[in-house]
Amino acid sequence: MRYLLGKLPEQELVQFEAQCFEDDDLFHEVTGLENDLIHSYLRGELSNSEREEFEKGYLISPARRRKVEFAQALEQDLFGSNELQGPSEEHQLLSGGAAPAYFAFQNRAMRFVSVGAALVAMVAITWLLIINHKLNGELGQMRAQQAELQRAQQEMEAKLAAVTARLQEKERLPIAFNLAPGLSRSGDAVKQLVIPPEIRSIDLNLYLEDDKYPVYRASLETLAGKSIWRKAGLKSGPDSQGRQIILLSIPSDTVKNGDYIVKLDGITKSGKAEENIAAYRFVLAKR
Amino acid sequence: MANLSTERFSGLLSSLDSDRVKAAEKYVLLRLKLVKVFERLPAGDPEDLADKAIDRIAKRLEGEPIHNLNSFAYAVAMKICLENQRASARFVSIDSDAGSEDCLIGERDPENRIIDNMRSARNLRCLGRCLQRLRPGDHQLLVEYYKGEKQARILRRQKLAEKRSITLARLRSEVNMVREKLRGCVDRCLRSNVRERSRSEA
C-alpha cells in the first residue's frame, strides 16, 4: 500500500518494483490491491484521511487518473443498473429461463415461498416506480439550476477577465487561456477570450486528448475558413497537472474581435502531415 | 504495440519461453509490468514508454543473450524514467507561477470541467463496446469479483475461487488480465474516436 501511495523512499521503491518484475504472484497481488483501492475510493469506502492520502499519493499522474476514470466507468456499467434489481439470486429465479423450472414444483411450502417472493417483487417494483418519478422531478429541477449556474458562471468569467486585464495591464504580461478540442459542445458556450487591446500576445494552452506526434502545426482561421496565421514546429509538453498541451502564442496584432478556429495538424517522424487532428474554437474580444 | 520487426519480436519471445503460447503470455505480463512502472510518471504515455522499453530489450537480445530478462527489463525501465524526467523538466508550465501576485487564485478553469465531462461520456461508450467483445463468462467474473462491500467482497472472492477450483491468487491474476484487456480495448477505442471526431468536425 505504501508503494501505491508514493510513501516508499526511493531505494525501497526501486527494490520493491524490481521484486515485482521477478515475482509474478507479487505483481498480480499489487495490481489487485491497486484496483481494489481504486474501487474503494470510488465507492466512498475510504475514511477522510485515507481519501486524502489516495488523492495526494496515488493520483499523481495522468495515467493513474485515467485508471480511476476507467474504474468509474466500469463501476457504472457493472453495478449502476444492478443496484435496482434487488437480490441477484432471487431476481434470477423470477425471470428468464430459470422461472419455468422454478415454478414447476409440487411442494406446498415452496409454493408459499414463491408467492411471497412475487409479492415482495411487486412491492419493490411499485416502490421503484415512485422513486423514479420523484427522481425525474428532481432531475428537472437540477437541470434548471445547472442552466442558472452556467449563466452566473459566464457573468463571473467576464468579470474575472476584466479584472485580469486590469491587473496585467501594468505589467504587460502575456495572457494564457486553456482550450479544449471540439467545435461543437452541446450545452456549453464557446470559450470567450477577453483581452486588453495593448496586450502583446495571446497564449493558448491547446489541450491534447491524444499526443501521438513528435511535432505539430497550427493554423488560425476565421469561421469562414480564411487562414490568418500559421505556426509550425510546435511540440507538446505537460501542464502543471500532467496533461499534454501545446502552447501557442498568437501575436495579438494579427487578430481582431471575432470568432476563430485553431486547427492542428500532426507531423509524423517521416515528415508526413496528418491534417486536422484537432480543432479549437474561441471568440476574441479586445476591451 | 511495439514497433518491432518480426525477427526481433520472435527473438524476444524465444528468450521468454520455448513454448510459443507461454512466451506470448509472459510477453503480455512483462509489458504490463513495464506500463505499471511508467504509470507513476507525471508525464509521458506509459504505453509508448513500454513500447520503447520492449524495443530496447529486443535490440539488446540481438547482440547477446540476457541472463535475467526481468531484471534487465526493470533496469531499462528505470533508464527511460530518468530520460523522461529530464525531457519533462525542459517545459515550464504557465501555471508554475501560480504563487506570483499577478495570478488570480479562484475557480478552476471551466474548460477543465468540459474536458472531464467529455472524457467520462466517451469512456462509457467505449467500455460498452469493449465489454461486448469479452468472452462470455468474463463480464460475469468481473461482476462477481467486485460485488459487495469490503469484508463481504473478500468472502465472496474466496467462495468464487472455491467454486472455480482455483486458488485466490489464481483468481486474482485472471481478473487482472481480463481487466487489463478491457482497459487496453477502451484506450484504443478512445484514441480512434479522437481522430474520427477531429476529421468530421474539421
Structure report:
The complex is a heterodimer of chains A (287) and B (202). Chain A is of the alpha+beta class and 287 residues long. Helices cover 47% and strands 23% of the residues of chain A. Chain A has helices at residues 10-22, 24-42, 48-57, 62-79, 88-93, 98-103, 108-171, and strands at residues 175-179, 191-195, 201-207, 215-222, 227-234, 237-238, 244-251, 258-267, 273-286. Chain A has a five-stranded mixed sheet. Chain A has a four-stranded mixed sheet with strand order 1-3-7-6, with no helix packed on it. In chain A, a hairpin with a 5-residue loop joins strand 6 (237-238) and strand 7. Chain B has eight helices and no strands. Chain B has helices at 6-16, 20-39, 46-63, 69-89, 110-132, 136-146, 150-163, 168-201. The model of chain B is unreliable at 92-107 (pLDDT under 50). The interface between A and B is large, with 80 and 69 residues.
Give the arrangement of secondary structure elements.
The complex is a heterodimer of chains A (287) and B (202).
Chain A: H1 10-22, H2 24-42, H3 48-57, H4 62-79, H5 88-93, H6 98-103, H7 108-171, E1 175-179, E2 191-195, E3 201-207, E4 215-222, E5 227-234, E6 237-238, E7 244-251, E8 258-267, E9 273-286
Parallel strand pairs in A: 1-3, 2-9
Antiparallel strand pairs in A: 3-7, 4-5, 4-8, 6-7, 8-9
Chain B: H1 6-16, H2 20-39, H3 46-63, H4 69-89, H5 110-132, H6 136-146, H7 150-163, H8 168-201
